């Protein structure tokens, strides 16, 4: 009887354990990141612009806010094909360009990546029929000016529906 009970308990524990899902899943039309050591999720007032048919520039842009009047934006542009890969905030604009922006509406202060250096990197990790997902990281500066204070952005993720 003792062995039966141990086997039954073992089976129950095994069956009740679930493997946790991947930690890279993020809901559509959401941006999340650790900014200056604080975790943020931006999923309110989502605005998006997707243009993959222009001859001059292909663009994915998503902007959202949180309940504390903080806002975040991700911009990716390419003069060729907008697809999997990395886009940096560097002088390569308009060939392949990526930029992130963070701020607060009151009092308004805005941090952005510098356009003359590779201070931020955005990577598109998945493109499907209805969704573009990716990651980002870098250092952003008040008004994009490297002589003003900067903050680190890590663990950045975004997901934007194309519908």
Please specify the SSE layout and strand pairing.
Elements: H1 2-16, E1 30-35, E2 38-42, E3 44-51, E4 58-65, E5 70-78, E6 85-88, E7 96-105, E8 108-112, E9 120-127, E10 131-142, E11 150-161
Antiparallel strand pairs: 1-2, 1-11, 3-4, 4-5, 5-7, 6-9, 7-8, 8-10, 9-10, 10-11
Summarize this, please?
With 163 residues, this protein is mostly beta strands.
Number of strands: 11
Order of helices and strands: HEEEEEEEEEEE
Query: What is the count of helical runs?
Result: 1
Structural class: mainly beta
| Biggest beta-sheet profile | 11 strands, antiparallel
Q: Classify the helix fraction into a percent range.
A: under 10%
Coarse morphology: globular
Q: Work out the radius of gyration.
A: 20 Å
Strand content: over 45%
User: Unreliable stretches, pLDDT < 50, 5 or more residues?
Assistant: 1-22
Distance between the termini: 60 Å
* Mean pLDDT metric: 78
Provide structural commentary.
- By secondary structure, the protein is mainly beta.
- It has one helix spanning 2-16; strands at 30-35, 38-42, 44-51, 58-65, 70-78, 85-88, 96-105, 108-112, 120-127, 131-142, 150-161.
- Strands 1, 2, 3, 4, 5, 6, 7, 8, 9, 10 and 11 form an 11-stranded antiparallel sheet that branches.
- A hairpin with a 6-residue loop joins β3 (44-51) and β4.
- The radius of gyration is 20 Å and the shape is globular.
- Mean pLDDT is 78; it is low at 1-22.
């Amino acid at each position: 009887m003792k062995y039966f009970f141990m086997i039954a308990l073992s089976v129950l524990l095994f069956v009740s354990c679930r493997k946790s899902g991947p930690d890279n899943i993020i809901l559509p039309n959401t941006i999340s990141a650790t900014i200056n050591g604080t975790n943020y999720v931006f999923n309110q007032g989502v605005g998006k612009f997707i243009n993959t048919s222009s001859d001059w520039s292909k663009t994915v842009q998503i902007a959202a806010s949180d309940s504390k009047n903080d806002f975040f934006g991700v911009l990716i542009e390419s003069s060729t094909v907008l697809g999997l890969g990395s886009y940096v905030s560097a002088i390569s604009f308009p060939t392949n360009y990526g930029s992130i922006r963070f701020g607060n509406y009151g009092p308004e202060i805005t941090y952005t990546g510098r356009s003359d250096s590779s201070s931020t990197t955005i990577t598109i990790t998945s493109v499907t029929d209805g969704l573009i997902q990716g990651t980002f990281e870098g250092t952003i500066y008040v008004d994009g000016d490297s002589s003003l204070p900067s903050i680190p952005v890590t663990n950045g993720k975004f997901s934007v529906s194309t519908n």
